[in-house]
Amino acid sequence: MTKRTPVLVGIALTLMVSAAPAQSLFGQQNNAIGSNAPSYYYLGGKEGLMIGVNLWGFVDKPGRYEVPSSTDLVQLISYGGGPLVGANLSKVKIVREILQPDSSYKTEVIHVDLEHFEKKGAQPVLLLPGDTIIVPGSTFSTLQEVLPVLGYLGAILSGLGTILLVLHY
Question: What's the number of domains the chain is made of?
Answer without folding.
Answer: 1
